[in-house]
Amino acid sequence: VSIDRAVERRLEASVTVFGPASLSNLGPGFDTLGLCLDAVGMGDTVEAWSTDAPGVSVSMDPEGFGADLPMDPSRNTAAVAAQAVLRGVGVTHGVHLRIRKGFLPGSGIGSSAASAVAGAWAVHKLVGETEDKAAVVDAVLEGESIASGSRHGDNVLPALFGGLVLVSASEPTRYRRIPIPDTLSIAVVLPQVQILTKQARAILPPQVPLRDAVHNASALAFMIDAFRAGDWAEVGRWMMRDRLVEPVRATLLPCYEAVRTAALEAGAFGCALTGSGPALFAIADDLARAEAVRAAMEEASRCAGIGISGYVCRVHPEGVCAL
Ligand code: HSE
């Protein structure tokens, strides 16, 4: 069956897609909430073409940021996700992926997720499948799990679908896209400290007090409601109320307090780590304010002796897309 399908399928010569960066956790939403970012170049570009040899092979564009990433297809997130797509549609030929990473791995804005969604979507498009992104959800979760050691969807699903996505921590193939107004403006800063997701997950406590778990559950519920309403001040308030994860991870980032304080003093509604850090983000209701917040956050980090780069962006409404 699979060989017939492969022969019948009209294969494109090559397909190029862009997988965007994303924020995850957003304070109380550990492994549960993520937001797709729209900032020029902040994401991975993957070109895919068919090969006669079966399986997936990978090369890295030297102008990108992926020099240290594994080329072994069984350990590369884009390749693992692509392989899962091939397996799912029963195609027997192989695929080559050429990856250009737009930002450094280990930054906290979904590097492995950007690769996984770009790898999966490029191959999905290459083999002539539909525009249905739900078809690759399993594949992108598989790709992400290779990098982080855990099958969580709070970066990959926003990077796949765009916008704000709520995903079950225990059943990550269950998700909901949450519609939000398009006025949200975001400052994202990347301190020059590398924190690997596996390491930042390993330091989390295996058990937490019931009162803190309940607090977080209610904070997340209030925050989602505020997101839907576009009440950014309220979102910012709840974003900073995580009691389970961020207080532990903040210890990995020496400039954490200084940057957070600077963001709030510059007028941000809230500021938090994204994912496992070290990146922090802050929210505002217009780009000019977000720009002032970004500048203040960068200044604070430099004063604390840590190099940093920052961006101002909006929410990417679409997620991974063909170029
Ligand atoms: N939710 C994940 C974490 C995101 O915070 O560990 C990083 O992959």
Helix-strand category: alpha+beta
Strand residue content: 15-25%
Oligomer type: single chain
Q: How many alpha or pi helices?
A: 11
- Rg: 19 Å
User: Termini, distance in Å?
Assistant: 31 Å
Q: What is the count of β-strands?
A: 13
Q: What's the shape?
A: globular
- Approximately how much helix is present in the residues? 25-40%
Mind summarizing the main beta sheet?
8 strands, antiparallel
Rounded mean pLDDT is 93
Uncertain segments: 1-10
User: Cofactors and ligands present?
Assistant: L-homoserine
Order of helices and strands: HEEEEEHEHHHEEEHHHHHEEHEE
Write the layout of secondary structure elements.
Elements: H1 2-8, E1 14-20, E2 22-24, E3 33-38, E4 43-51, E5 56-60, H2 77-89, E6 94-101, H3 111-126, H4 137-148, H5 156-161, E7 164-167, E8 175-178, E9 185-191, H6 197-202, H7 210-229, H8 232-239, H9 246-249, H10 256-265, E10 270-273, E11 280-284, H11 287-303, E12 308-315, E13 321-322
Parallel strand pairs: 5-6
Antiparallel strand pairs: 1-4, 1-13, 2-3, 3-7, 3-12, 4-6, 7-8, 9-11, 9-12, 10-11
Detailed description of the structure:
37% of the residues lie in helices and 22% in strands. The strands form two sheets. Strands 2, 3, 7, 8, 9, 10, 11 and 12 form an eight-stranded antiparallel sheet that branches. The protein has a five-stranded mixed sheet with strand order 5-6-4-1-13. A hairpin with a 6-residue loop joins strand 10 and strand 11. It is built from eleven helices and 13 strands. By secondary structure, the protein is an alpha+beta fold. Helix 2 runs parallel beside helix 3, helix 2 packs antiparallel against helix 4 and helix 3 runs antiparallel to helix 4. L-homoserine binds next to helix 6. The site of L-homoserine (HSE) has 13 residues, from helix 6.
